[in-house]
Each structure stands twice: as C-alpha cells, then as structure tokens.
Amino acid sequence: MKLTAQIKLLPSDEQAESLLRTLERANEACQYISDYAHESGEHSKYKLQDAVYHDVREQFDLGAQITVRALGKVADAYKTNPNTHNQFDIRGGFPYDSRILSFYTDRQEVSIWTLGGREKISYEVGENHRALLEQDKGEADLIYRNGMFFLLVSCQMPTANMSDEDVEAIDGYLGVDRGVNNIATTSDGDNWTSDQIDERRQWYQDRRDTLQSVGTRSAKRELQRLGGKQARFQRDTNHTISKRIVSKAKARNSAVVLEDLSGISERTTVRRQQRARHSNWSFYQLRQFIEYKALIAGIPVIKVDPAYTSQTCSNCGHCDSKNRNGSNFECQNCGHSVDADKNAARNIAARGAVNSPMVASEA
Ligand SMILES: [Zn+2]
C-alpha cells in the first residue's frame, strides 16, 4: 500500500527564492517540451528525450536529472490527455526523485537540487506522517502553495499479515459501518452524522455555482481557493473520525473491522475522486486513514464481506429486507429494535471474529 506523507519545508528567504526559480524554470521547460510534443505528435518519453533533451538543458540551464523528470512529467500528461496541447502552470508541482532529493529524517532535513546548487532545508512534519517517512520512499512532488513549499512524498507501507498469536492477543472487534446518513457508525454506538458535512457541502456548492456564473478571473481564482478549502475540510473530518476509531480500538485492544468494498464500486469511487477534487464524501479516504493510523498503532484491521450487513438482525441473525426501514431497524423475527447503522456495525464486528484477518491490502 502506498501512502502520501506531506512535509512543509522551512527554507531561508534565499532558499525559498531559489526553490521558486527552480520550480518556475522546470515548468517552463515542461511547457517547451509540451509545445514540441503537441506539434510533432511525439508523446513517448524516450522519443521526446531523443528530440529535445540537449535543447532543454541548454535553453533552461537545468541539471540532467531535472530535465529527465520534466520529460517524464510531459510524457505522463500526454498519456492522460493525448489529444490536447497540455499546458503547464509555471508554479505547478514538480516531481523529484532520489537522485535530486535526499532525506535525513534523523535531523528533519532534505537535500534538494535547485538552480543555485544543492540546498539543505529543514522541514516540519506531523506525527503520523513522520512514521510514514521512515518507510521506503518513492517520488516526491514539490508543491508551492500560499507562499509555502511542501513535499508530497509517496511512501511504501509494509503489508503485514496477522499471525495466530496476533489474533489471540486481541480482546475484541470494533465494527465500523460507513453509511449514507452517517459517515461512520461503530458497533459500540459512536457515530458521525453526515448532516453537518452536507450543510457545508451545500454551502460550497452554492458558492461555486455563484462564482461560476460570474466567470471573471478573480472569480476563477476564488473558485480554486474554495476547492482547496473544501478538500482540507474533508481531510480534517476524516482524520478526526479515523483517529477516534483507532484510539478507541487501541485502548480496548480490539481489531478494527471494516467492510471490504474492494469491488467495482470502490474503484469507481477512487476514479471519481481523482477526476473531481470537489467529489462527494470520500469513503475511500476514511478507510485509508483508518488503515494507516491502525498500522502505526499496531492495531489489526480486518475486512469482511459486506453482503446483507444492513438487513441482518444483530440480535438473532434473521435476515430480511423488511427488517430495515430507513434509519430504523426492527427485526421481523425477534422484534429487536435499533439504529440501522449501529445494527450493521455490530454485524460487521461479528464477522471480524470469524474472518481470516489481514492488516492491509496491496493498493
Ligand atoms: Zn432478530
């Protein structure tokens, strides 16, 4: 499973200026390569490299590896959108790899290639992301946002299967149902309703509609800023929920049990999320947050078959679609009456006890 760690760079004024010039120059080079790719119809990285590598290095005074990354970035863009003349924002993110970026996690410092030479820059990182950085690291995107520099680092998480001893060490199972009325409900009754989120989402939607109808440049900028704010709000909420769930499981020495939604529906969700930043509430993100917080906390995550969890009585096991009526569950067999999402979460927890557990799947 790959997860992204975000770190904030703390450059001096001179270093910040050098980073910004480097980012701008690299993106100018991308635009130059893109112009060529569009005109020539040559889209593969190697063909582009043959054609313009020396040109780019000379014209933009870039290092060999930065030039290779620029060629890669453009080739990727044409892989996704072959029929457009791809444009590169002069301050857009730029990919770095281990040949132009090194981490010194013990002293929270990176060494990064800039036009002025290698710079050693210290950084800030949150507690969870610090743990991610200790794993194997892949590419990192250098991002410039609101006058600050960030690195989004792709980290490989270990995939660990639970041993029999791990299973024996567990005292219980905390089931989590991810519904529509509720973002999440646990088998012991914690729940986070979607109401507040929906209100906020509606507010963003209305504001976006207004700005779109205005259509001026400043409205477009405001629109972009709004998208970022909404995404951060969603992230924060998912972080809060996942943190609470995992810390509760840890305190009780329980495994977290989730529905295994790794079918088509989930893949659709992921793709939709990539397509639109202002996507609907993201279950996928919540699951990801639960998984990596659990991994760091040493709490197993078990995925179970989600079929009929909402129609089955958690008291007597009777399964009937008539058991469920909106947000209420009332068993047609034993009369057990309970909140529908809580009933589902209990079924999920019970299934965790009989399933063969695993910590994380390859994503
Ligand atoms: Zn029943």
Q: Can you tell me the residue ranges where pLDDT is under 50 for at least 5 consecutive residues?
A: 264-280, 356-363
Helix/strand class = alpha+beta
User: What radius of gyration results from the CA coordinates?
Assistant: 24 Å
Overall tally of structural domains: 2
Helix/strand order? EHHHEEEEHEEHEEEHHEHHEEEEH
Provide the helix percentage: 40-55%
Mean pLDDT over the residues: 84
Largest sheet, described in full?
7 strands, antiparallel
Question: Strands of the biggest beta sheet: in what spatial order?
Answer: 2-6-7-1-5-4-3
Shape assignment: elongated
Distance between the termini: 5 Å
Distinct compounds present: zinc ion
Strand content: 15-25%
* Tally of strands: 15
User: Treating each run of at least 4 consecutive H or I residues as one helix, how many helices?
Assistant: 10
